[in-house]
Amino acid sequence: MPELTNTLSNTQTLQGGQAFGQQIVGSKHLYWAIIAVVCVGFGIAVALANPLIVLGVVGATVMSAALFVMPYLGVLVYLVFEYARLPMMFPFLQQMQIGKVIVVPTIIAWLVSWAIFKKSVLVKDKLYYLMGIWLLLALVSAPFALNSNAAFFATFDLLKWFIISFLLMNLMDNLTKWKIAMWILLLLNFKLCQHQIRSFAVGLASVSNKAFFIHDGVGGGSGFFGNATDFGLAMAVVLPLAFYLSKGTRPLIGKLIAAGMTFGFTISVLYSGSRGAALAMFVAAFVYWFQSRKKVFTAVLVVGFITAFWLIAPPEWKERFESAENYEEDGTAQQRFKLWQAGLAMMADHPLTGVGLRNYQTNFVNGYMPADYYGAFVCHNILIEAGSELGVGGVAVVLAMFALAFMRNRQTRRLCARAPDEMRELVLYSRAMDLGLITYFVGGMFVTVLYYPHLYVLLGFTFALHNIARKRADEVSVPVAG
């Protein structure tokens, strides 16, 4: 018995020791140990190497790990990076190539999730064929371009935009994700909007020639937002998105915020001094009236909107807008005509290959510029830009993309007929995408924005919304009306 008692006592002591040991070295302690080792390693690396390189490597590693868990985060990070213009605010970020750091691991994470873990579903659409044709045209034209290096680099940039559209289409796979991304997009644009409005107020108060200041307008910072005309179009594009978000959002605070952004974007279009952006906004207002079932009420709303916009516009802005009637005497209009004529001549001389991506300016200066010309060297028209640089095929592909996007929005509304009450939001947002594409297209007739993010982000949101509508319609057993 004493031996048995001793044996049991030793066993209990051993078990207690094991339990005690397990408590000392638990999983949470292991995590803290790993964090400590990483922090020490980070400190040593910073001391021995360039801190920016170390920070970039660590940031890329952490973000890549997060993306493999949830690739959708890559979409949100991209929107913040692209629209917050962080590299312009912090120049040291320009060395890190953050755009590629975001896009590459995101597409890899999605491919792993789709091909290996079968957690993602590929959205199938004819848009991919159009993107492939566009890339093929760019690759074919590059060897014949005056500046082949610029053409090849521009082709890789075009591929990046297509990847962005692809990721938006495939990662925003439900309405919640779609709306989160839309809110982030609009809030980032509103950040630039309020900055522009404040800059305009400060600038107008400090300059002596106020008419010239109002004539030129103010942009939203730097990059593709720096030019006032380009910025005006960017605000015109997101304006209908914010307007329809205010209609689709149920909480009152959300409606008020979206309505405030709509008002802010409208003021930004005015302060940009861009006649093309204002025209695009007015066309979108007319289309909104045309699509409305309550024609009289909507007509009063649209007329009131345009009237209010005109009343708050400075006299100098009105004179600039009215000067378009006498385009023969308008210097800006005459510049546009000469640039368009040169672009059409390039397309006529190179109908199959064009002059190559990013080669309009080179060809304009080296053979198509009139002797008495003075002004900008970009073509200021997205269709002429596509045709001059990629030939007739370039114009056809761009127009086909717009047509397909409008068709998908129409199909989204038809799918929503299966459950009109449950899918009302989708109908509203499909109309928002229509108006966003219309403002981009109309404004794009006067500015060079074909390779800015607007089109590719709009396409991503449009086709993602259609995919969401298809999935919701499949859950409803009621047959499609009509």
**Rounded to an integer, what's the Rg over CA atoms?**
28 Å
Sheet/helix structural class: mainly alpha
Share of helix, binned: over 70%
Mean pLDDT: 83
DSSP, total strands: 0
Q: Spans of 5+ residues with little confidence (pLDDT < 50)?
A: 1-5, 11-22, 478-482
Inertia-based shape? globular
First and last CA, distance: 90 Å
**Tally of separate helices:** 20
Main β-sheet description: none
Order of helices and strands: HHHHHHHHHHHHHHHHHHHH
Structure overview:
This protein has 482 residues and is an all-alpha fold. Helix content is 76%, strand content 0%. The chain is built from 20 helices and no strands. It has helices spanning 2-24, 27-48, 51-69, 72-84, 86-89, 98-115, 127-141, 148-171, 175-206, 210-216, 228-248, 252-272, 275-291, 295-312, 315-322, 331-349, 360-368, 382-415, 424-443, 453-474. The longest helix is centred in the last third of the chain and has 34 residues, at 382-415.
